Amino acid sequence: MNTFSKDTSILIIGLGVIGGSYAKALSKKGYRVRCITKEQKDIDYALELGIIESGSTEISGELIQDADLIVFALYPHIFVDWIREHGHLLRKGTLLTDVTGVKGQIVGEVQAMLPDGVEFIAAHPMAGRESSGVEYSDDRVFLGANFIITPTEKNTPEAVAFCRALGEALGFARISELTPEEHDEMIAFLSQLTHCIAVTLMTCNEAPMMEQYTGDSFRDLTRIAKINDVMWAELFLLNKDALLSQMDAFAKEFADFRELLRTGDSDGMRAVMRRATVRRTLFDKPKT
Amino acid sequence: MNTFSKDTSILIIGLGVIGGSYAKALSKKGYRVRCITKEQKDIDYALELGIIESGSTEISGELIQDADLIVFALYPHIFVDWIREHGHLLRKGTLLTDVTGVKGQIVGEVQAMLPDGVEFIAAHPMAGRESSGVEYSDDRVFLGANFIITPTEKNTPEAVAFCRALGEALGFARISELTPEEHDEMIAFLSQLTHCIAVTLMTCNEAPMMEQYTGDSFRDLTRIAKINDVMWAELFLLNKDALLSQMDAFAKEFADFRELLRTGDSDGMRAVMRRATVRRTLFDKPKT
Q1: Do A261 and B240 touch (CB under 8 A)?
Q2: Distance spanning both ends of chain B, measured CA to CA
Q3: Do B250 and B197 meet the contact criterion of CB atoms below 8 Å apart?
Q4: Axis-axis angle for helices A240-262, A180-187 (nearest 10)
Q5: What's the whole-model pTM score?
Q6: For the residues of A78-122, what is the DSSP string, one character each?
Q7: pLDDT in tens, B108-129
Q8: How far is B129 from chain A (nearest CA, A)?
Q9: Is the dihedral of CA A78, A80, A83, A86 positive or negative?
Q10: Handedness of CA A60, A61, A64, A66 (dihedral sign)
C-alpha cells in the first residue's frame, strides 16, 4: 500500500450526496477521482462540474483494477451485496473504505469476504445533508466536522494512516478512532436518536396552519425530519439494540423532566437546564 | 391613537436580546427609539451603536409620558409587576405591547390593571437567540420569521393595525392573529416542547468525549439547550397544562415509533418517516 497522495487513483462507488461531496472535496485539491454509479445523468453532472475524471454505470473491471482507494458510498446492504458479488474483481493492494452509518454488522462481514491482500478500513464522515442525490453534494459540510475511523484487528497501521490522510484531505476538523461497537453505541445516541426525535416531533401533532406560527427552534429540531426513509430504516434496524437503549434513556429523562413540571418544581427544572447549558457549550462546532 | 409612523415615539422597556433587536430594527429604519433598562452599560452600548436616542435606568415618568408606543421586553412576572407598580405613570393614548412567550396568564391580568385610555395589545415575535443580553441582539432574526398578535375583546381594531404595522417595520415575513389561549397551545408545541426535548437530549446521556464524534444533527437538536433557565422555567409553569399535554402526545408517538423498531417493522417506520418528510416541507423558512 502506498501512502495517500496526489498519485492515488480514487474510485467512488455510489455518487449520491456523500459520494458527490467526497468527489468535490478531493477533485478540488487535485486528487484523481473516478466513479461507478447507477445513473448516467449523475456521471454527466459530475463530469460537467469537473469533480470526476471519468465514470461508468457498469461494474467496470478496468476502473476497479486501476483504483488504489475505493470509497463505497452505498446503502449498507447494497455495499455488502456488492462485495459478495464483485469482490473477486478487486486488485491486491487496493484499499477499501466506506461512509456507512453503522459499523458493527457491516465491517466484520465485509472484511471476511475480501480476497487476500485487499483491506477494508471503515470510516464514518459525521456530516451530511437531509437531501439525497449528487446535486445536493457539498464538500463544505466537512469543514469543522468529525471523521470517525473504526479499525478492527484485521486492519494495518498503514491503512489507518491512509484513512486519516483521506479525512484530512476531505477537510475534517477532528479525526478519531473507535471500535465498530463503540461507534455504533455513540451513533445510536448522537445521530439515530436525534432522527427518531425529529420524526416524532414532526408527526406527533399534525394540526393545520402551524407553519404560520413557528419559530427557528421547531425548524432546527425537525430539519432532519426530511429523511431518506429507505436508508434510515435500514440503519435503525442494523443498530436496533443500541438505539432502543438510547431511546429508553431519553424517554426516562423526558418523563423525569415532565414530573418536575407537573409538580411545579421550578428549582428542579432550572437545575436540569443549567446542566444542559453547560454541557452544550462542549458541542459547538470548531471555527473553521 | 395615531397610526404607526416615523413620528411615533417608541419606548422599549428592558434592553435585552429581544428589546435590543427591536431597537436595532426600528432605529435602522428611522424610527425614534428610547429605552428604560436596568443596567447603564446596556444603555451605553446601545447609544454607541446608535440604536436608541436616549435611555434611563430609572422608571422615568418623562420617558413614559412621552411615549406613543411602549414595548415591554421583560420576563413575564417582571412585566406584570411593572404594570402593577408603575401603571399609574402611563399616559392616556399610549399603546402598550410586549414580546412575552406566554399570553393566557399575562394578557388578561395586565389589561385589567391598566388605567382608562391605555391599551395593551400583546404580541409574540417568533424569533430569538439562545444567548441573553443586548450584545447578542440581532434584528436579522426577524427576517422571514413569524409575528403573532393575540388580541382580546378589550382591543380596538386600531391597536391591532398599529401592532401589525410594528411587525412589518420589524421585518417579519408573516403576521397572524390568535387568541391568547390558541397562542399558548400552539407555543406549548412549537416552542416549549422543543426546548424540553433539547434539554432532555442534552442531559440523558452524559458520556465523556462525545463532542469528538458528533455531527450536525445533534448540534441542531440541542442548539436551544443553551437556555435561560430563569425565563424558561417561568414560561413553562405559566403554560403548564398545555405543555404537559404536548409532552404526553410526543411521548406517546415516540413510544409508538420505538415499538415499530422493536418489532422490526421497517415498513411501519418508513411510513412515519415519509409523513414527517412531507409535513416538514411546510415549515421551510420563506426566502427573504
Answers
A1: yes
A2: 32
A3: yes
A4: 30
A5: 0.91
A6: HHHHHHHHHGGGPPTT-EEEE--S--HHHHHHHHHHSPTT-EE-E
A7: 999 999 999 999 999 999 987 7
A8: 9
A9: negative
A10: negative
Q: Match 392616556 to its residue by C-alpha cell.
A: B92
Supply the Cα-derived Rg of chain A in whole angstroms.
Answer: 21
Residue B56 φ then ψ, to 5°:
-145, 145
**What's the whole-number mean pLDDT along residues A72-83?**
97
The two beta strands, B146-149 and B123-126, are: antiparallel
User: What is the distance in angstroms between the Cα of A209 and the nearest Cα belonging to chain B?
Assistant: 9
Query: Which whole-number Å values give the CA distances from B190 to B217, B223, B230, B235, B245, in the listed order?
Result: 18, 15, 20, 13, 13
> Do B271 and A230 form a contact (C-beta atoms < 8 A)?
no
The tens digit of pLDDT for each residue in A117-176 reads 999 999 999 987 778 899 999 999 999 999 999 999 999 999 999 999 999 999 999 999
Enter the C-alpha cell of residue A279.
454541557
For position A288, what pLDDT does the model report?
A: 59
Task: For residue B174, give every residue at least 6 positions away whose Cβ sits within 8 Å of its Cβ, in sequence order, or none.
Answer: A212, B145, B146, B147, B286
The torsion angles phi and psi of A101, rounded to 5 degrees, stand at: -80, -10
Q: Which residues of chain B make contact with A132, given a CB cutoff of 8 A?
A: none
In order, the DSSP letters of B33-54 are EEEE-S-HHHHHHHHHHT--SE
Interface check A208 vs B, CB under 8 A = no
Q: Which amino acid is at A3?
A: T
User: Which residues, numbered 171 to 200 in chain A, qualify as contacts with chain B under a Cβ-Cβ cut-off of 8 Å?
Assistant: 174, 176, 178, 183, 186-187, 189-191, 193-200
Phi and psi based region of residue B10 (left: phi greater than 0; alpha: psi -120 to 50; beta: remaining)? beta
